[in-house]
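User: Working on a comparison across species. This one is Cilia- and flagella-associated protein 263 from Spodoptera frugiperda. Can you predict its structure so I can line it up against the others?
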Amino acid sequence: MHYSSIASGSESITDYPVDLLSDEELVHHVEHLRKQIRILKLENEVLEMNIMRLDPSLMVGVQEAFKYATKLPTASDENLGSFLKSQMTKMKLNENLHAVSGTTRSLRRADSRAKVNASTVTRVAARINVNERHELLSIAIQHVEKNIHEWKKQCKTKTALFNAQLEACDLWIIDTEKSAQSFNEEVIVKGYDRLTQRIPAEVWIRFMIEWSKSTDKKLDKLRLKNSTLNTQYKKIKATIGAKRELSKNLTPVDFDKKRIQNQEAEKLLEIKKVQLYELKAMAGDANLNVTIHKNAVTFVNKYLTKLENLKVQRTRQTVQIEKESKEIELQVNHLEQKVEELKKLRAAYYVPDIIDYVAVKDQKHELLYGIKRMETRLQINKTALSRTYKQLRLLLSLGLREGDKDTDTVSGYSEQWD
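Assistant: Here's the predicted structure for Cilia- and flagella-associated protein 263 from Spodoptera frugiperda:
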């Protein structure tokens, strides 16, 4: 398509006799030609991109020329005609490319020059110079960068969408596994009837009803969450639209106005800062006085609490003393009664004679001696009775084969002795 590079600076391998070239020189020229071909392919791609972006109708003749070139015969008698046709096609293509480059330059310099008609572009040179190539290449790079930026945005949105879909699939898988596990536990394992060796339909229906209820609850939660997200999205969209409108309506004068307002606000802020420092100093003094008064109040409160506690303690002591005084009065009255009784007893007391006391003492001694003698006799009788009881038991054990009458009599005697 584009042959300006070969015509301008590249050397053809036909300029040198192939028989005189060495292998290294031949390889070097072949590599050089391959490099030139790669460069020409890149230049052709850039030119095609620019032409298709600016005016796709210019590529109609080029495509027809390519189709015609592919259909050309390879006979030697038609080489001259094909060469002339290729030269004519090349001239048309160079004219079109020069017109495209002139159009791009006119678009870039539209702010500094007047409108230029496309028919007035000079066609003296049929080649594209280096500056035009750089200009076309920069335009193509900008266009490619713009497309890449748009593709990145689309990729980000698609990746976010795919991640959301993957998360939703994970949640669906988890819910499905939980439902399957609960189904296996409640229906297949617990609902299995060993007598009929079947699963009753009631168990299945109950499980499906409960599962549908839980699913409805989850759907309600998801609907609520979706509605909240939609409201948030609408709010964010409205704020973004408002910001876009503000960005469109803003002018440099507005920025200057805002800058002046910011400067005035900064000055006012400095004044307010100074006032704030003064207020902080005053507040510090006030806080110091407040802390001093708080300490004094706490000391007074502590002293007051001590006095109140002492007052309560003294009231308790007075109540206790009153109770003790009442008890002491009662004891005094009781002791006074005892004193009166003692006085009466003392007045009515009669001291007996010594002979009477000795006689009473002798009677007491005789009575104590009789008690001891009776206790000794009782002990002797108990010993004899126990010995007799043992002998009777021995007799009972020896005479078990005798009649019931004798046994009853003996048992009666034993009971009496017991």
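For your comparison, note: The chain has four domains: 4-128, 155-249, 272-349, 359-417.

User: Helpful, thanks.
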